[in-house]
Amino acid sequence: MADQLTVIVLAAGGGTRMKSKTMKVLHPIGGRSMIGHVLAAVSGVEPTRVCAVVGHQREQVAPHIHECMPEAVLAVQDEQLGTGHAVRVALDALDEQQVTPVGGTVLIAYGDTPLLEGRTLRWFAAEHEAAQAAVSILSGVVDQPKGYGRIVRDDEGDVLAIVEEKDATDEQRAIREINSGILAFDCDFLTDAIGRIGNDNAKGEYYLTDTVQLARAAGLTVTAFPVEDVWQTEGANDRAQLAALGRELNRRIVTRWMENGVTVMDPETTWIDADVVLAEDVTILPGTQLLGETIVGEDAVIGPDTTLDDCEVGVGARVVRTHGQMAVIGAGATVGPFSYLRPGTILGARGKIGAFVETKNAQIGDGAKVPHLSYVGDAEIGEGTNIGAGTIFANYDGVKKHRTKVGKHARTSSNNTFVAPVTIGDGAATGAGTVVRRDVPPGALAVSMGQQRNLPGWAQTKRAGTPQAAAAEAAESLPSESDD
Ligand code: UD1
Ligand code: CA
Q1: Which of 31, 109, 335, 457 has the fewest beta carbons closer than 10 A?
Q2: Where is this region: N-acetyltransferase (predicted)?
Q3: Ligand 1 binding pocket includes 231 (Cβ within 6 Å)
Q4: pLDDT band at 478 (very low <50, low <70, confident <90, very high)
Q5: Other residues' Cβ atoms within 10 Å of the Cβ of residue 7
Q6: Is 342 within 8 Å of 358 (Cβ atoms)?
Q7: Do residues 27 and 152 touch, judged by C-beta distance below 8 A?
């Protein structure tokens, strides 16, 4: 490789066909922005420097690029006068900001090609350098060349020019080899040629692709390398293309995990983001989305119908029909069906969060269980404790949130309310329907319900004339067991 490799990423265009308040390159796909994927691929070639050209909605785009790649130089193109102009703006910005002059190879990429891979860029740069070319084109042979610049070759197969769709003759339009947009330049040639590009064409733009003719006129080498995997250079211009690229990206990610020892029962309905990490022998059942930076340990079974976003799932855990966000599920734990794990949920090893349970900011100890129909917010539950069905951790007094602490090996009964802040000690117990407002000492049984009172004949007098009263009367006229 050359001593210096500069990558320029073009991302100043408007992307109006997205019809969105969000700038095109910021649209998410596979858990990252489109430009986030491109910058990840660019990092893969370990460039000397990277410059991103921003323009449209740069108040959104610039901070995002800075976040993805803090070292990238940002160049501002106020008016989008064409790809050639964009590259000139980038070279000027690099000239201003770099201590050393730019030399070696310059690669041009676009910010909206999310399937691009680092190894493709590396291969292309190496081919370009080996050919000692002034310009190299990453081309592609496609069935639908419409909209692309066509690669015009002579009888020997040497590249003569790139002709844009709008400027092409009918004969040129029939050419199926297209310019992907990814180009490699000898830096000295590019610096000289970029100022000599005109805008006398159908679009009135400064076409970067005109450098090809300039190189040819100077007797320099121009090469084109067709990429086999054309998905990698495909851009998303509208939402339908975004969805198509998203499906293909997902297919690739899911396939890679299967190759790495993950069982995926239904690849079609399984969605895995680019930054997810799965161990061997994980099983994913249909209708499952693993998003963000979710990590799943060996032998865990996830799904069906489960979404986990930025979650951590321990070895051998079982998660069924669950929605989880920023939650940690311990080794061998079970979650679901129909559980909602909100941020800050930490379930210990072999613990359980069962059906219709919502948790938030809740540490649930090893082997502790919240099996049914409960809300657990701002809580700490000790190891081995069992929370009864239908328990509400009442964490909110209408103004502030408060915490509840339940000790180890406690047994709380059904339909309890724990009014925070409150503490239930180790080994304590509660009766059914208890409203715990005061701390319960270790080992104590807390009951808050009064003695049950029965008011005989209440329905017959207070609900006279209703089916309820009639049913009560009918039951009264039957001989009861106590009449014997
Ligand atoms: C360009 C190529 C064409 C190629 C196609 C591949 C030129 C003249 N044409 O055409 O040969 O087949 O890409 O998709 O280069 N941009 C800027 N500033 C500008 C103009 C564009 O940053 O002033 C950025 C856009 O945001 C986009 C990229 O450059 O990411 C390509 O621009 P676009 O206008 O889409 O070029 P095409 O006409 O598609
Ligand atoms: Ca385009």
Answers
A1: 457
A2: 261-484
A3: no
A4: confident
A5: 26
A6: yes
A7: no
Residue (of 231, 139, 122) closest to 177 by Cα position:
139
Structure tokens that stand for 413 in this block? 């009964």
Q: Please check if 166 is assigned to a binding site.
A: no
Cα 241 from Cα 244, distance rounded (Å): 5
Task: Tell which one of 54, 61, 83 to mutate to probe ligand 1, the residue whose CB is within 8 A of the most ligand atoms.
Answer: 83
* CA 51 vs CA 28, 104, 109, 112, 117: distances in Å: 22, 15, 10, 15, 18
Is 375 assigned to a binding site? yes
Say if strands 177-186 and 135-141 run parallel, antiparallel, or are unpaired: antiparallel
Q: Is 373 helix (H, G, I), strand (E, B) or coil?
A: coil
Residue closest by Cα to atom 13 of ligand 1: 181
User: Rounded distance, CA 148 to CA 230, Å?
Assistant: 13
Q: Rounded to the nearest whole angstrom, what is the distance from the C-alpha of residue 417 to the centroid of ligand 1? A: 62
CB proximity list for 353: less than 8 A, separation 6 or greater = 333, 334, 335, 336, 339, 341, 345, 347, 359, 364, 370
pLDDT by residue (tens digit) across 259-311? 999 999 999 999 999 999 999 999 999 999 999 999 999 999 999 999 999 99
Angle at 177 between CA 175 and CA 178, to 5 degrees: 105
- Interhelix angle 58-68/34-43, nearest 10 degrees: 40
Q: Does ligand 1 lie within 6 Å of residue 206's CB atom?
A: no
Joined tokens for residue 192 = 């000289």
> What tokens does 140 get?
């592609």
CA of 233 to the centre of ligand 1 (A): 12
Q: Whose CA is nearest to atom 21 of ligand 1?
A: 83
Take atom 22 of ligand 1 and give the residue whose Cα is closest: 12
148 lines ligand 1 (CB under 6 A): yes
pTM higher than 0.90: yes
Ligand 1: does its nearest atom lie under 6 Å from the Cβ of 211?
no
Burial class (CB in 10 A: 0-12, 13-18, 19+), 356: middle
State the catalytic residues.
372
Helices 118-130 and 34-43: angle between axes, nearest 10 degrees: 50
Q: 286: left (phi > 0), else alpha (psi -120 to 50), else beta?
A: beta
Task: Give the whole-angstrom CA distance, residue 404 versus residue 397.
Answer: 13
Is 153 known as a binding-site position?
Answer: no
> Distance between CA 9 and CA 77 in Å, rounded?
12
Rg value, the chain, Cα: 33
